[in-house]
Structure formats: C-alpha cells, structure tokens
C-alpha cells in the first residue's frame, strides 16, 4: 500500500469513528500507536486525551506542530462508505484530515536523519468549544515540551484545493459566549396584566443587542454579536416566568470585547427594569484571538513555497471572524496558523460544520509536504 493510500485509509477510519471533546479515547490510541510504530517517543493523557510525540535528533531548536482531533455533535447526512458510525457525532470540520496530515508528516520526518533538533507533534483534543488547547497548556504542555515556536493548520473551504494562505497578525477572532436570564411573574396568556411578560422583554433585548456593534463599538474594530438561542414557555396559553437568551461574540480587539461585555449587562438590566423583571448575565470569555507572529508567518510562507511552489500562496486573504483555541498556544509561544484550501474540484462544496461536509483527500499529501517542509526549514534556519 502506498503512503497516500495509507493517509486516505487513516483519514476515512477517523471520519467513520468520530469522537467529541475530551472523548477522543480511540482516536488518541490510534495516534499514539502510529507514532510509536514510527519510532517516536509518545506521551498520552495531556489535557485529558491529548497526545504528544517527540522526535529528537541531537541538539538544536524545538518546533511544535499541532493538529486537533475532535469531532462535532452533528448527525451526518452523507451516505458514502466512510460516513460516521457514531450517531450524532461527525467530523464536520476536517479534524480527521488534520490528524492524518500530521501523522503522515511524523512518519516521513522519522524516516529522515539529515536534520538536527527536536520536532514536537501535538495532537490536541476538544478544539470545538471546549478549549482543549487551554487544557493542555494548563497541564504543563510547554513546560514539559519546551518548543521554541508552535504552528497550526486548518483546511479552508472556499480556497482552492492545495492553496495556502497565512497573514501576520490576527487570523481568527476571539470567542465569547453569553446567557441572559430574564425572570418575572408568569400569568395566564388571556390576562397579561397579572404577570410580567419575559418573552416581550426578550424580543426587545434581542433587538437592542444588534446596536452593540453598530453604535457602541469603535467602527474600526470588527465585531459580531449573534443571538443563537431563545428559550421561554411551554404552553400556548401561559406567559412564562422566565426567558433565556444565549449567543456568542467575536472580536479582535480587547477594547471591543470589554465594551460588548459591559454594555450587554447594562442593556439587559435596563430592559428588565422597564418590564418589571430581573436580569442576570453570564458572560464567558472562551478563546482569545489567534494572532500570528511576523517571523513565524514569513517562515510558514517560505515552507509552503518550498513544498508546493510559490503559486500555491494566496495573498491578501482577510482574517476570519470564526474562532480557534490555537490562539491560546500563540499567546504562550510565537508561531503561525495557516489555512489550506479544501475545495473539492468536482461536486458540491459544503462549509465547515455542515452535516454533509467531507474533508478532501486530495489535500492530504500537500498538507504532509507542508508540515515536513516547515519542520525542516524551522530547524535549519533556527539551528
């Protein structure tokens, strides 16, 4: 079986057996077993289900390469042979491909002896919403494995297959979540004057929240506030005593993040007071922005050019308001996070987190080449 056939087999096995945040037991075992078979020293259980492989060739710098392993709680709609066998769980973001590409690079780098230094392969759990990067860091990731820089990669629908893009500075937005709870007095729907209507207040507050970005945040600071849930009531003829609003916030600047958090609480209190209700706001800052360092971004571009040719680099792509917990690693270490184009050359392309998404196996080998080129170039330039 060829190396490429191995990659496809690994990737499709992972796709068929998805595991969600901090449940990546079998995925982690597969990763650890393969790394061990390549002759790489393996440590498991970091940050819960994280796996780290260390490949050392004498003295020299230490470069960290990171892939995420977790799936999403989505019921897959695909019917191909490698569709999810775990009902309600799906690799809808391509982490099966990310894991496979880094495994392929680990195999190739382990077979080479013409480089010096240390390559640290970081297989991270729970990127999707649960902060696996933070869990690994808090579990001593960079104290136990003192890398000089750390790099990440994500497939990117909308970019041609095999094309790379990366930019210095902000690449992905910070991510926060909020819950606003409005509490009052329930009543018969035919007698609204005997209660305090939490649903009307919730509707008013959702509208008010739309002015946070347009009127309270510096227009030069990108931000998104999205209400994604409204819960209240169980009957057609009852005004509920409580309504709940939930959603998320995306920002690049700390000032915008603080303004949104503080003004959201003020708005909730004002609407509640006017309606005769009480309001509580739970605002949770989850992920920092993913911000690439200048030198490492330039190195990543050189490595991608070496691996795939200069025409593979797409310049001028805007950052995304999506989020990624790799930002926590880039707070701790310099590094860069790149996007690898994932568009299927034929057929319909589905975006990340779609129930019919599938990773494009044609970019597995280009991804491996990039990781190998990046590791070798980093060790050579920094050695």
From TrEMBL:
InterPro entries: Amidohydrolase (IPR017439), Bact_exopeptidase_dim_dom (IPR036264), Peptidase_M20 (IPR002933), Peptidase_M20_dimer (IPR011650). GO terms for molecular function: metal ion binding; N-acetyldiaminopimelate deacetylase activity. Its cofactor is Mn(2+). The Mn(2+) ion enhances activity. Keywords: Hydrolase, Manganese, Metal-binding. One of its GO terms (biological process) is diaminopimelate biosynthetic process. Residues 178-270 form the Peptidase M20 dimerisation domain. This is Amidohydrolase. Mn(2+) binds at residues 93, 95, 128, 154, 353. PANTHER family: METALLOPEPTIDASE, PUTATIVE (AFU_ORTHOLOGUE AFUA_6G09600)-RELATED, PEPTIDASE M20 FAMILY MEMBER. Gene3D superfamilies: 3.30.70.360, Zn peptidases. The keyword Hydrolase applies. SUPFAM superfamilies: Bacterial exopeptidase dimerisation domain, Zn-dependent exopeptidases.
């Amino acid at each position: 079986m060829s190396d490429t056939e191995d990659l496809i087999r690994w990737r499709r096995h992972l796709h068929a057996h998805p595991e969600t945040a901090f449940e990546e037991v079998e995925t982690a075992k597969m990763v650890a077993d393969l790394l061990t078979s390549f002759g790489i020293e393996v440590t498991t259980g970091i940050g819960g289900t994280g796996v780290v492989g260390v490949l050392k060739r004498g003295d020299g710098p230490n470069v960290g390469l990171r892939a995420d392993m977790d799936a999403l709680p989505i019921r897959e709609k695909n019917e191909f042979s490698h569709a999810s066998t775990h009902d309600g769980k799906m690799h809808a973001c391509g982490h099966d491909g990310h894991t496979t590409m880094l495994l392929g690079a680990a195999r190739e780098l382990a077979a080479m002896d013409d480089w010096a230094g240390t390559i640290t392969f970081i297989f991270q759990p729970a990127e999707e919403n649960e902060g696996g990067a933070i869990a690994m860091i808090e579990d001593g990731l960079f104290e136990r494995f003192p890398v000089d820089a750390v790099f990440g990669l994500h497939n990117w629908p909308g970019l041609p297959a095999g094309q790379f893009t990366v930019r210095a500075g902000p690449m992905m937005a910070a991510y926060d979540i909020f819950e606003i709870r409005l509490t009052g007095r329930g009543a018969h729907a035919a007698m609204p004057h005997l209660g305090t209507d939490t649903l009307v207040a919730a509707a008013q507050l959702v509208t008010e929240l739309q002015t946070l970005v347009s009127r309270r945040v510096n227009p030069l600071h990108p931000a998104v506030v999205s209400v994604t849930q409204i819960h209240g009531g169980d009957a057609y003829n009852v005004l509920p005593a409580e309504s709940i609003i939930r959603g998320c916030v995306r920002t690049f600047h700390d000032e915008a993040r603080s303004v949104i958090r503080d003004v959201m609480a003020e708005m909730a209190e004002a609407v509640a007071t006017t309606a005769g209700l009480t309001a509580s706001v739970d605002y949770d800052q989850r992920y920092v922005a993913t911000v690439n360092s200048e030198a490492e971004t330039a190195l990543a571009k050189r490595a991608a050019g070496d691996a795939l040719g200069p025409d593979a680099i797409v310049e001028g792509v805007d950052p995304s308001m999506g989020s990624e917990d790799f930002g926590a690693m880039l707070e701790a270490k310099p590094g860069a996070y790149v996007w690898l184009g994932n568009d299927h050359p034929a057929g319909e392309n589905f975006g990340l987190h779609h129930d019919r998404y599938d990773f494009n196996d044609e970019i597995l080998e280009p991804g491996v080449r990039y990781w190998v080129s990046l590791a070798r170039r980093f060790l050579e330039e920094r050695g």
